[in-house]
Amino acid sequence: MTTAVKPLPPHGSDARYKGNRTGTRPPCRCKLCTRGHRQADVQRELRRLNGERNLVPIGEVLPHIKMLRASGMSQTMIARQAGISQAVISYITTGRNKTCQTEKARLILAVQPRRFTGNAERPAIGSIRRVRALYSLGHSRAAISTLSGLSVASISLLAEGRWNVIDNRAATALAGAYQELAHSRGTNWQNQRRAAAEAWAPPGAWDDIDDPAAIPDWTGYCGTDRGYWTHQRQQLPMCPRCETAHQQWLAEHAHLTAQELNRARFAARNAAASREADLAHDARELMRVSGLDVALAAERLQVTRAHLQQALLRHPETAAAEQSEGVAA
Question: Residue 217 domain-assigned?
Answer without folding.
Answer: no
